Amino acid sequence: MTYADTEFADPKPSIENPRQFIFPITSGDENQISHVLSSASNVMKFYGPEKCEIVIVCYSQGIKTVLTKAYFFDKDIQKRVRSLMTYDVEFIACGNTMKTYGVNKKELLSGVEIVTAGIVELIERQRAGWTYIRP
């Protein structure tokens, strides 16, 4: 079996012109969370961490992804989140979701940013040219 190499669109990804991706996590389902984390990791491996910027916005039930005590059956999820953060993957928590579920900032993993509304963050990043990916 032969595979064709992916052709890069111009301008090609570089340190000066990185590809920018934004992923939502809206489900508390561990398989769906894991799928988004794997997809982000695969994109980063393909382009190289220095040639892409990745943001993961967690809202609704997806807020579990960035909680210090999420009680996941799969204990690796929080390790994977921390690992992605070491490659400058940005994790964002939705402030509206936090209010709805009574989550305070101290309950978030260190390094997670908070925005007023996760859905608005997705909209504005897309308007700014970020590629929206929903695996």
From TrEMBL:
Any Pfam family the entry gives: DsrE
Recorded hits in InterPro entries, A to Z, give: DsrEFH-like, Sulphur_relay_DsrE/F-like
Q: What PANTHER family does this protein's entry cite?
A: BLR3518 PROTEIN
Protein's name in the database: Uncharacterized protein
**Which source organism?**
Sulfurovum riftiae
